[in-house]
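Appendix B. Raw example, untouched.
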Amino acid sequence: MTLFECNIPIVEIPPTCRAKFATGRGNASKGEVISAISAKTGIIFSGASGNDECDAWVLERMGMVRLGIDSQWDWTKEQLSALDKVDWSPLEE
């Protein structure tokens, strides 16, 4: 609510898009998402908040890639295709 009240754009990203961006498969489990991102980046997501932290990291990367400001990691065509399924129009306003 605070983001909306402060006129900060909000983009809703479906879980299947998050999974596909992380792994190349939209039906990947949370464990598979964590494993794929850890293998790619070396970042370890663990503990009770590991799933949420990994999800937040992936969602942040998706936004950064969409805005053209993430060049640290290479993403496959299949992973990048997940971006096409998201309504990014709030960022364009």
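End of appendix B.
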